[in-house]
Every structure is written in structure tokens, then in C-alpha cells.
Design goal:
- This protein is of the alpha+beta class and 738 residues long.
- It folds into 4 domains: 232 residues, Rhopdopsin 7-helix transmembrane proteins (Up-down Bundle); 82 residues, PAS domain (Beta-Lactamase), CATH 3.30.450.20; 201 residues, Rossmann fold (3-Layer(aba) Sandwich); 180 residues, 2-Layer Sandwich (Heat Shock Protein 90), CATH 3.30.565.
- The strands form 5 sheets. Strands 10, 11, 12, 13, 14, 15 and 16 form a 7-stranded mixed sheet that branches. A 5-stranded antiparallel sheet has the order 6-5-9-8-7. The chain has a 5-stranded parallel sheet with strand order 18-17-19-20-21, with helices on both faces.
- About 3% of the residues have low confidence.
Length: 738
């Protein structure tokens, strides 16, 4: 037996060397450190046991015993820490510290066991059947250490078995099974040694047999089941170092794993890991957060949980919850929301400013252009007509500048509408040429016009916006060309039986654009080559608006330019064909020469119709009544909301035009009062206003108006509007083509 024990000790020492070597070779974290700590402690203990079993006297034996206890005191504690780390189970640092201090105190008493009775109260050296032994009676610290080792074994085995039962990976399960058996063998040897359950325990420290079994199982776990595999250790390390909290539950909804960030987020997890509670409170709070779409707020941090199924071979084995720390993102989004609110507030202020500017500037323009139209209608003197024509041209230029700003506002806010209607390309071409001809002629520029006569006669698209884009390009060409020519070419290409592509090209021999200025060409309110072109009128919005309008119509503006020699702007727009017959020459059917430009003929007569015009500015009332004078309408006027309400209650009107921005009572409030007191008479209410910003039409229709007309009022448009709403029986001499 004696020889057998010596051989077993030698084999155990060799095994412990192997454990320590593998621990150093695979070192990548605390799990390896704890195993190395355990292996070295065990190695010291077994080497000392070899010296003990060969000792010849008490002094040699006691010296070997003290050296052995240097390892034996720490073995159980080291194995316990190793098991906790391997199973990823949290154990409070304060408890680890307390246990370490207790073991250090115990070993201090062992160093001087000849001089105190705290560890051994009595001892005597004897040799029995070849085994040198030291029969003793234990002191208080002896029993303390024994209880601690039993505690480590029992709790360690319990936690490892718990982890084994929750683990789904087969290799990992075998690893945990070996660990539980290893810890169980150490605990069993403690019990046998303490209670002297076998005869050998009375002669020899049989715990080395438990440690021998433990070492064998450890080697199997390390070599065969990759217990210290670097990939596994690295994966565990990475998971613990994630900013996201990770919690895994098994198919019974019990927590089987959590990483350190999750433990910091839910400190209760560390407590539940030591008892049988399944941590359902944690999972319930996460599920409620996911279900309600609300983040989890804890410790001034904000976490967004996500849930994913864990599937092995087609079977759902649990769920993984990831808790991302989105605190900074939420703060960033809150800041963005605040900035957006400020931007929206600034945008509302801008819109209000534009509305006020539109009203304030359009009101005098309305008077200027309205009275000028009366001069053009009534005067026959050429000199007076020329003056009036200059006034109209300048007024329309000023109006165009305002319209550019308002159109830009509409496009910016996404409220610019594309409204497809039936139109004749030849008529549109004729209008474009007539609108630009005078300005080009005044500068001595030639106009080269090419219009493909085979373009289908009727198309469907937004004629107004197409014309606006082309006119912006033509106006720019005239403005930036001092001599030479401008060109307008309109062609087409058939796409299919129902659609064609209209191709517009505007060219000039003007100043051209430098390459370095191309990037600023589409920038709002920026005019290129400002020093050279500072005398040229404009807002710098025309090209920007044109590009955005074309984008709304699924097109794009193309530019080719050579500085000092001219530019070419072009775009193509898909249009629906309504009549495939050819348009013919654009200028043959649509003649609008100087001989007819001042002629005026009212569209209708309606002496039995009665309208009310409400505006707080007397000049506006004068303009409208004079524009409609020849229609023979019965016209009443009011300067305020209350006055208009009184007149509407006393008279039956067919139509009522109401200005929006009036003092004391505005147009919308006036409208509501009128509708409340309508009685049997139901006139058509039309908003008459200088407010032309984006969304104005929708605002007036939603308020209860039937239609909307903006200032400055054009006589022909006003007459067409009235014709469309007056009862047919009250209209006389109405042209067929109104």
C-alpha cells in the first residue's frame, strides 16, 4: 500500500504539471488564471505530501506539512473560483476578499502551529505500517477550513450541475459534467478524511486521491472537450466586453446565461444566480418594453431591448435578449427634435413673413397694374399707350421677382402641385415667343425659333409649369446676352402609342458660365459672376426653381456652357398624347401681334347679377369695380367685415369677394359670420387676397370659400372666374369659348 501511494503521488504530480502547463499555454483570461492557481496550489500540496510520506522524524514531517498547507489551504478556494468563472456565475468581490483573508489567517496559524492551538490543539508523530503520520486534534481554525472546503465543494457542484442542466451544447455539457464530478470527488475525499471513513484515512491524507481524480477529469476536459479552447475563451471575453447586455433563456423561460453588461443593468441577476429563482421579473420587464415599444431607462441610461429565437436543428431551444445602450442616440434624437421644432418655428415665421410681404407688396402692385390696364383699355393716344405699356412691363417684372420667392417657398415646403391638363403645344410655343420677343427686340437680339410641326396637336401635362420652366430659361438667356441671338427649339420623340417626349432647348450667345461657377448655378439666391452681372435684375432663384419643377415632373435640367461664348440649357418631359394629328406651324394660328394687344372686349354682360366686394383698401375696390364696369354687373363694396356682414344680411348676392387680411375682423371670420346668417340665399364666396404663399388655396377652401383669386387681379381672369359661377340665366352675350 505504501508503495502504491508513492506511485499515485508521483502520477498526480505529473498530472498537475500538465494542468499548469496547459493553463499557461492557453492563457487568455481569469478562467485560466484560476485554474493555474488551483494547479500550482495542488502541485505544492502533492509535492509536500511526497516529502511527508518519506519523513523520518517529526521535525521533517512538520516542515513538509507547513509547505503542503501553503497549497492545501488555497486548493478548494481556487477550484471554486475556477468553477464560477467557467460557468459565468457572478460572486460578489467582497465575499471573495473575505474568504481570501480567512485563508491567509488560517495559513498564518499553521506556520506557527507548534506555538498555538488554533489549528491543531494537539499532535504527535508516529509511524504505522510504514506510513509516517501526525495524529492530531483539530482546533477552531482547522474546523473552519474544513467547513469552508465542504462549502466550496457543495456549492461548486450545485452551480456547475445547474449550468450543465441549462446548457444545450453537447460538448459544453460534457465539460460541465466532468467539472461537477471533479468537484464532487474533492468534496468526497474531504468527508472521508475528516470522518476517517476508511482505514487508510487514519494513516494517510486520502484527499490526494480526490485531487488525483479531479486532475484526471480536468485533463480530459482540457484536451478532449476544449475546456480552455482559445476561441471559446475569446468568445466569452468578447461577449462580456460588449456594450450590449445579453440574456439567454431556455425553452422553460428560465435564465441560463447573461453577460456582465446585463448584470450591471439588472443587478438582481447576480443574486438570482445563487438561488433557484428563474429571474422572470427581469424577462417580464424586457418583454413589456418590447411589446410597448418603449426603451428601458435605468441609472440615467436608455436601453433598447431586442428578442431573437435560438434554434438548433429546427427546434426552438430558447431566446436571446440583447439590450443596446442607446443613451447617446436618444440624446442626439432629442436634440434633433428640439432643433426641428426651432426650424419649424423659424419656418412658420418665414411663412408668416412671406404672407405679409406678399400682401403688402401685391396690394400696391394690384392698384398700379389695375389702373394701368384701365389706361390701356380707354386711351387711344400712342404716347400714352407707350407709357402705360412701360408701366405694365415694370410692374410685371416686380411681380415676377415676388413670384420667384413665393414659388421657391412652395417648392421648399413640398406644396408645389403638378396639375396635368389638356393643352396645345403650338399655342404654348406661341405664348413663349410672344412673351420674350419684346425684351429680345429691345436689346437688339435675334430670336431663332424651331418648332417641329409634327408634334401631336393635343397633349396632357402641366402646361403652366412647363411654360414657366421654358420662360425662366428664355428670360435668363435675354438677360445675360448683350449681342447676338437666343434660340428656342422644341422637338419630340415618340415613346409609345400614348406618350411622347417633348424636348426643349434654349441657347444663347451670352456671357456663358465658368467651370468653377457651375456648382453655384442651382444654389438659391446666389448669382454667378456677381461682379460682372451686378447690373442685371433678378433674385437668383429662376434656375433653382426650374430645376426643382422639372424634378417634380420626373425630368432634369441639362447645362452646357463655354465662358464668353454662350450657354445651352435643355430638358425633356414625358407627356400623354390626346390627339395625334400634327400641330402645324406655331405662329400661323396663334397670332397676337401688336395690332391686337391693346384691344379689350368684356366676356359677358350680367345686368341682373349682383356681387359684393369686401376690401379694407379703397384703391383695391376702385380697381376691381373699374375692371368689371363694362360687364354691367351690379356691384356693392364694403370696407370692413362688420359692414359686409350687414350688407349680406340685407341683400341677395350671387357672389361675394372677401379680402383675407383686414383689421378687426379678417376675411375668414367674416365668411363664417356670413354663412351663419345666410338664410335662403347661398352666394358663392371667393377669397380675394394678396396672400400667394404655399398652401394658401387649400387654406381658403378648407375655411369654406368656393374659390380663390390672388392679387394683382387680372381683368380677364376675374371675368372668367365670375362666368364660371354665375347662374347661366343671368349671363348675357357669353362667348362659347370662355
Amino acid at each position: 500500500m505504501y508503495q502504491f501511494v508513492i506511485i499515485l503521488l508521483c502520477l498526480t504530480i505529473i498530472g498537475l504539471f500538465a494542468v499548469c502547463w496547459f493553463s499557461l499555454k492557453k492563457w487568455s483570461g481569469r478562467v485560466h488564471a484560476y485554474l493555474f492557481f488551483s494547479g500550482v496550489s495542488n502541485l505544492i500540496y502533492n509535492v509536500a505530501c511526497l516529502f511527508e510520506i518519506t519523513a523520518k522524524d517529526q521535525q521533517t514531517y512538520v516542515t513538509a506539512l507547513k509547505i503542503g498547507y501553503l497549497g492545501r489551504v488555497w486548493i478548494g478556494f481556487a477550484l471554486f473560483l475556477f468553477g464560477l468563472e467557467l460557468c459565468n456565475i457572478y460572486f460578489p468581490v467582497i465575499l471573495k476578499t473575505i474568504f481570501a483573508v480567512v485563508h491567509a489567517v488560517i495559513y498564518t496559524t499553521i506556520i506557527g502551529l507548534e506555538f498555538n492551538t488554533l489549528y491543531y490543539s494537539s499532535m504527535k508523530f508516529v509511524v504505522s505500517d510504514g506510513f509516517p503520520t501526525l495524529p492530531h486534534t483539530g482546533g477552531p481554525l482547522y474546523y473552519t477550513q474544513t467547513m469552508l472546503n465542504l462549502f466550496y465543494s457543495v456549492l461548486g457542484v450545485t452551480l456547475v450541475i445547474r449550468t450543465y442542466l441549462r446548457e444545450k451544447n453537447r460538448i459544453a455539457k460534457r465539460r460541465y459534467l466532468l467539472m461537477s464530478v471533479a468537484l464532487f470527488s474533492v468534496g468526497t475525499s474531504y468527508v472521508i478524511y475528516f470522518f476517517k471513513l476508511v482505514p487508510l484515512a487514519r494513516k494517510f491524507d486520502v484527499m490526494i486521491f480526490g485531487f488525483a481524480i479531479c486532475n484526471v477529469l480536468m485533463l480530459i476536459a482540457i484536451i478532449k472537450y476544449r475546456m480552455l479552447d482559445a476561441k471559446t475563451a475569446a468568445r466569452n471575453y468578447v461577449i462580456d466586453e460588449l456594450s450590449e447586455g445579453i440574456i439567454v433563456v431556455d425553452h422553460t423561460n428560465k435564465i441560463s446565461y447573461f453577460n456582465k453588461p446585463a448584470q450591471r443593468l439588472f443587478p438582481v441577476l447576480s443574486k438570482k444566480s445563487l438561488i433557484t429563482d428563474d429571474g422572470s421579473g427581469v424577462i417580464d420587464s424586457i418583454e413589456n418594453s418590447i411589446r410597448n415599444g418603449e426603451p428601458i431607462r435605468m441609472n440615467d441610461r436608455i436601453y433598447t431591448p431586442r428578442s431573437n429565437k435560438l434554434v438548433i436543428e429546427g427546434n426552438e431551444v430558447g431566446r436571446l435578449y440583447a439590450l443596446g445602450d442607446d443613451t447617446e442616440q436618444y440624446h442626439y434624437m432629442n436634440e434633433l427634435r428640439k432643433q426641428r421644432e426651432l426650424a419649424d418655428e423659424a419656418n412658420r415665421a418665414k411663412s408668416q413673413f412671406l404672407a405679409n410681404m406678399s400682401h403688402e407688396i401685391r396690394t400696391p402692385i394690384n392698384a398700379i397694374l389695375g389702373m394701368d390696364e384701365m389706361v390701356l383699355r380707354n386711351s387711344t393716344e400712342k404716347e400714352i399707350l407707350d407709357y402705360a405699356e412701360d408701366i405694365r412691363s415694370s410692374g410685371k417684372t416686380l411681380l415676377a421677382l415676388i413670384n420667384d420667392i413665393l414659388d421657391f417657398s412652395k417648392v421648399e415646403e413640398g406644396k408645389m402641385e403638378i396639375i396635368p391638363v389638356q393643352y396645345e403645344p403650338a399655342a404654348m410655343m406661341n405664348d413663349l415667343v410672344n412673351m420674350v420677343r419684346d425684351r429680345a427686340t429691345q436689346k437688339g437680339l435675334a430670336i431663332n425659333v424651331e418648332f417641329d410641326a409634327k408634334i401631336p396637336r393635343l397633349l396632357k401635362g402641366d402646361e403652366i409649369r412647363i411654360k414657366q420652366c421654358a420662360l425662366n430659361l428664355l428670360t435668363n438667356a435675354v438677360k445675360y446676352t448683350k449681342e447676338g441671338r437666343i434660340g428656342l427649339k422644341v422637338g419630340f420623340e415618340t415613346i409609345d402609342s400614348d406618350h411622347v417626349r417633348l424636348d426643349f432647348t434654349v441657347s444663347d450667345t451670352g456671357t456663358g458660365i465658368r467651370k468653377e461657377d457651375m456648382n453655384n448655378l442651382f444654389t438659391p439666391f446666389v448669382r454667378i459672376d456677381e461682379e460682372k452681372n451686378r447690373s442685371i435684375e433678378g433674385t437668383g432663384l429662376g434656375i433653382s426653381i426650374t430645376r426643382r419643377l422639372l424634378e417634380l415632373m420626373d425630368s432634369e435640367l441639362k447645362v452646357q456652357s463655354e465662358y464668353g461664348r454662350g450657354s445651352v440649357f435643355s430638358f425633356s418631359i414625358r407627356q400623354e398624347v390626346l390627339d395625334r394629328s400634327e400641330s402645324g406651324a406655331y405662329d400661323r394660328k396663334y397670332d397676337s401681334g401688336d395690332a391686337k394687344k391693346h384691344e379689350y372686349k368684356e366676356l359677358f354682360h350680367a345686368p341682373d347679377a349682383r356681387i359684393l366686394i369686401v376690401d379694407d383698401i379703397k384703391m383695391n375696390l376702385t380697381v376691381i369695380t373699374k375692371l368689371l364696369r363694362k360687364t354691367e354687373l351690379v356691384m356693392d363694396t364694403a370696407r370692413s367685415g362688420p359692414e359686409a356682414i350687414k350688407m349680406a344680411s340685407e341683400n341677395a348676392y350671387d357672389m361675394i369677394f372677401i379680402d383675407h387680411l383686414m383689421p378687426d375682423m379678417d376675411g375668414i371670420e367674416t365668411l363664417h359670420h356670413m354663412k351663419e346668417n345666410e338664410g335662403d340665399n347661398h352666394p358663392v364666396y371667393v377669397a380675394l387676397t394678396a396672400n400667394a404663399i404655399s398652401g394658401a388655396r387649400e387654406m381658403y377652401l378648407d375655411a369654406g370659400f368656393r374659390d380663390y383669386i390672388s392679387k394683382p387681379v387680372e381683368g380677364e381672369k376675374l371675368e372668367k372666374l365670375i362666368v364660371s359661377y354665375l347662374p347661366p340665366e343671368k349671363l348675357l352675350d357669353t362667348p362659347d369659348s370662355v
